[in-house]
Structure formats: structure tokens, C-alpha cells
Amino acid sequence: MSDRAPGSAWSQHDPGGLEPIRVRVELGERGYEVLVGPGVRRELSSCLPPGARRATVVTQAGIGVDVDPGVPCQVVTIPDGEKAKSLATVEEICRFMARGDMHRSDVVVAVGGGVVTDVAGYAASSYHRGTAVINVPTTLLGQVDAAIGGKTGVNLPEGKNLVGSFWQPLGVLCDTETLAGLPAREWRSGHGEMAKYAFLGVEDLDSLSLAEQVARCVACKAEVVASDEREGGRRMILNYGHTLAHALEAAGFASEDASSSEAELRHGEAVGIGLVFAAELAQLMGRIGTSRVERHRGVVSGYDLPVSLPPGADPATLVQFMTRDKKSAGGLTLMLDGPGGVEPVHEVRPELVHEALDALRGDR
Q1: Which of 28, 58, 236, 265 is 20 to 30 A away from residue 258, measured at CA?
Q2: Active site residue 296
Q3: 29-51 pLDDT, tens per residue?
Q4: Structural domain boundaries enclosing 124
């Protein structure tokens, strides 16, 4: 794969990593740059919208990443994990901004992982019917995926990310310095998203520097988003592996919470299982052969990610949550591999889904 993904602008000024790698998300007047490299969060003040008088920084306790927007700012700290992805948290952020006299011309800065960028982005999209947001993702998962593309949202008891909006950030600063202290499971979680990109055309990531790995994944996502901003068709492929992952999260077997118990899967670990499940299902439907399934298992296990369902996971319950997935309309829709690559497949037969889930049982 070349250093520039089709449809995106990628300029790497210094292979040694002294200058940031810049990836352009081409969305016309809503387009923006993603900067990748050590120390790029220090570019924050240059990303602010003209006329911004103040900023609200949304973050979580324990993240410990300081940013300087160059204007007076206030900091709101939201709870950790899935409980933060709620309409109550969005209200809390918006009321905090109102008390701080934030206006539409000001800016929200999201500093944290995918939970923070999801919630802060949705709050920004709602406050004054649209306030600029800049993302400073501090996890590998956030940098390669969650902070880019403008999908924001929160959960309902009935399912993941059922309430949200498309609200593109003004810019994204993927500072690889912030990844230095990540726990091992946070690295694995990010690698779950990177494993997904291996089946969307991003090859040989292991031969690249960390900043180049992040930028290569960002460039892939940027090209897909530019071709289908609002997930009307092609963008759905970015959810490869996620339908089962979201079902595992909704059923209580996985969490985006960095402080989750050892028994709970992290989001990227659940995505890894979802990738293997999707491959098993694609084989049952005659879309791919055994070697391609083994390729999925090899990539996922190569990142030290699980390839089996967690103990106690009930297939019937998981299928129920899958049918509530926002991509499904009147039937099961899943992203599946095939002769032409990953694509949405509609009206998947539930009995095949159950059979594929059975292939992922650790005790089989």
C-alpha cells in the first residue's frame, strides 16, 4: 500500500518522526487535518476556530494529559467507562458550558479515549445547535479510529450508541507521546481496531513506526469517510467486527472502561472476537474459504487478542442485541468478507449466526 490512501491527503514531512504526519479528511468545507506524531497536542492553539474566546476541555480523571488551547478554558471531568456514555452526561457537559458562558463561536476540546470523544462530540453538536470540537485522543484505539470521522453518540439501556449525531471535529491531534503509559490491555484494545484495518486494505503495519501505523489507519478511515460521510453505504465497513462486539458490550461481557475488571473484555478485544465471528459466518454463507478464516484467526491472535466467546455468553441474547444494532433495519445486517472484500450483507439468517457463534465457543 502506498503512503497515501486514495481520496485522502497524507504528507509525511520527516520519516524520523520529528515533524507530524498530516492526514487530510476530505469533506469539502467540513474537511480537516489529523496530525500524528509525538508532541502534536502542542499544536492545539493553532487549530482553534477564528473568534473563539474560550474553551471547555472534556476529560476523565486519571488521563493526566494537559493541553493549552491558548484561550481561557474550563475543565469538566466526566465519569469513567460506559456509564459516562449517557444523555445525563451530555446534559452535565452542556450545563457546565452554559454556566461558563460558552457561545457557539467557542470550542470544545475532547482529551481522552473513545468514550470522551464520543460524548464530548455529541455535546458539542447539540450545544447552541453546533459548537466546534477538537479531539485529542489519548488511547491507541482513539487515535486509529474513534476520534476520526465525526460519529458521536451515547448509549441507551436498549443498546450501544443508539443516540448520536454526525459532527465532524475541527481537527484531531494524535499525540503518540500520550500512549507511552498505556496499560497492556489498552494496547490490546487498540490493536483490535488495527486488526480490523488489516482486512480493509492496510497491510504490513508491523514494519512501520508507531506514528506511521496510526497514520496508515487514519488514512484508510479518512478515505472511507470522505466517500460516505453519513454511513449511507460504504462507511458501514468500518464497523467490521463491531456488531458482535457491541452485543458483547450490551450484554455486559465487554466494556470501554479502562478500569473494567479482568473478567470483562475491552472494546478492541471484543472487536477481535467479532472479526473471527464474521469470518466464520462468511464461510458458512460460502463467501470465503477456510484459508481466509485462518487468516482472520492468525491476525487476531497475533495481536494477543481472544478468538473465543467469553464463558457464559448466551448466543440467543447476543443475537437479540445484534438485531438492535443501528445498522440493522428489519433484519440482521452484518459486515462480512467476500470475493470483493468487506461489505454489508443484509437479511442474514439467524440460524447461521447461531452456528457461527457456536464455532467461537471455547469449550467446543
Answers
A1: 236
A2: no
A3: 999 999 999 999 999 999 999 99
A4: 9-227
